[in-house]
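FOLDING PROBLEM:
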Amino acid sequence: MAEPKKVLRIVHCVKLNKDLPGLERQPVPGEFGKKVYDNISKEAFQMFLDYFKMIVNEYRLDLSTSETDKIFFDQMEEFLFGKGSELPEKYIPESK
């Protein structure tokens, strides 16, 4: 018996300002996780993860500390919903 197909969930991504496939589940718990799930595409969330990886490497952050957890949430909110959500005028997404 074949596995049922996953239904593609489309969201209007506030980061990229277009309708795109959404995340499969909330990336973090709580109200903020729901906000990300409802308003951010898989593509935009991956952009954030790549961005945060750069921050971790640049500042040599220890991923096991609560300070880094706070930085993660602050950066996620700023990148996805704040000034960090504004893409450069001539931004062209990297094709895979």
